[in-house]
Every structure is written in C-alpha cells, then in structure tokens.
Amino acid sequence: MDVDALTVRxxxxxxEPVQExxxxxxxxxxxxxxxxxxxxxxQQISNNFDNGLHRSKSLFAFFSY
Length: 65
Description:
This protein has one helix and no strands. It has one helix at residues 3-64. The longest helix is centred in the middle third of the chain and has 62 residues, at 3-64. The radius of gyration is 27 Å and the shape is rod-shaped.
C-alpha cells in the first residue's frame, strides 16, 4: 500500500468522527454561548436606548415650561 492510499483511508476513517465532534461542539457550546452574548448585547442596547429616551423626555419636559 502506498502513502497516498494510506492517507485516503485515514482521512475516510476519521472524517465522520471529526465532523460529529465539530457538530457537537457547535450545538452544545458555541451556539449557546453566542446566543447568550447576543442576548446580553441587545439587552444593553435596549437599556441604553430606554435611558436615552427617558433623559430626552425629562429634558424636553424641563425646557417646555
């Protein structure tokens, strides 16, 4: 058996376990972490937006009198 044939057999043998491991990593770790980070980011954006609106409303009310 030559080196190229051996390489092909090794690649074929490890392809599926590596793919399954990669999929598992994405499903169990990477996607939930990314989702949690996005939720925190959007919550911070929402909080800052709400605070800005509240300040603008307060200033508008102050200068309206």
